User: What shape does this take?
Amino acid sequence: MEKNTFLILENFIGGKFVPCPAHIDSYDPSTGEVYCKVPDSGEEEVDAAVQAAKEAFPGWSARSPDQRAQVLNKLADLIEGHLEEFAQAESRDQGKTVTFARTVDIPRSAYNFRFFASSVLHHTTDCHQMDHVGCLNYTVRCPVGVAGLISPWNLPLYLLTWKIAPAIAAGNTVVAKPSEMSSVTAWMMCKLMQEAGRSTCDTFRRGTHKMMQHAGVPSGVVNIVFGLGSRAGDALVGHPEVPLISFTGSTATARHITERSAPYCKKLSLELGGKNPALVFADADLDRCIETTGEICLCTSRIYVERSIYATFLEKFVAAARKWKTGVPSDPCNKNGALISKEHLEKVRSFVALAKSEGATVHCGEGINHPDLPKRNINGYFMAATVISGVADSSRVMQDEIFGPVTCVSPFDGEDEAVAKANGVRYGLAATVWSRDVGKVHRVARRLQTGLVWTNCWLVRDLNLPFGGMKNSGVGREGGRDSYHFFTEVKTVTIQH
Ligand code: NAD
Assistant: This one.
């Protein structure tokens, strides 16, 4: 795209693109230039989307799970068929490297549809006999209705599809609102849904194929409304005809959502911030455990290292971080691209400044330090991997979520102290434990107050298993059966025979 040209996005409501009178600027984080104009939707647009979703609900929920699964598989095919375009757009919109978008974000977005297309076919319900009173009890699960889905900017299409896929697989229709800072791939997906819908109708009209063999997404099943959280997001959460909200984002926004939805007793799933610890014991395989940090909610931001290996670990870790190249997202040599926004870059930098003012040592990553960036990128929001030591456990740097490429390293003595330090924050999303002693990792994993514990690995996940955080990191779990349970209501039926 030429300089000063930008995309103009439109809401996707009832299978059609609907222009919005007002727009918000969204920037290319690697240049600081406007990349697209995002609809500044409010109550009116959200209500139109909810009405379209309501209208589509009876037809969609009446389809069998395998009919719905065909539609999900079709969506997966479409995303996979356009992988490179999606990867380029995600990188441009979000600032992450194209390599990361190509190998993680977009394949996983397609896989989310494929996974839930399959998973929805394998759920069973319960049955209990009460012979002494001649009754049979059994459970049925029904879709909830119009699901409101709100996602953040760090994994834009990946996290949006992580919500859309299980919601529609279970028979709900949805109104989704992606982050106003990273909306482009959601809009591209709407284009594919519209095209697939059109070709389904043509095929159907020609009568050459059975409808379900070329299943597009029926109009109104997936509606996407773009805009600010404080307007579009708020209108969705406060809409009386949206009984369920699945939200991924910050803990502060989740508090607002909880309060806003309380009068309607909405069903909520909240996947929130983290301050994830890594515990590195003296018997760990150090080379394997030198991981990185960054804008993934599951990244390690505090590394506690057993004192006997602390100096060795710190030296190796800093050396690895220095090699971690930051720069233009399209260059495959770069591991880190740009941060999402100027404000976010300033926030992350302010934590480094705070650490310094409190007497900490900043080992690497200070400054923008990328003299090799092309001229047009000098206004981009770049920050190199930063390693800090000597920060007190009580410091805001150790307690607050930074959500950038900053890691604090600190020593510990013994298992009890390691666990106490790891648990000594208000968050509880994920932790990693590094040790070759199976008994120790098992003991420590049980005592950690986090929803996920990885031992001697990181980010390895089977989507069947529960995902979510404790304490300020979330309420509820998502993943295979948990997502199905969240996106359905269970009913107990009793038959006297
Ligand atoms: P955010 O809370 O600012 O925004 C998330 C979404 O909520 C956006 O779409 C935003 O527009 C919307 N929103 C904002 N205010 C709203 C309101 N009043 N009502 C309704 N919606 C509103 O978060 P962010 O900065 O986009 O994302 C970063 C955060 O997300 C970090 O805290 C990170 O840890 C968290 N996160 C958590 C997970 C997880 O699985 N636990 C995954 C990814 C990101």
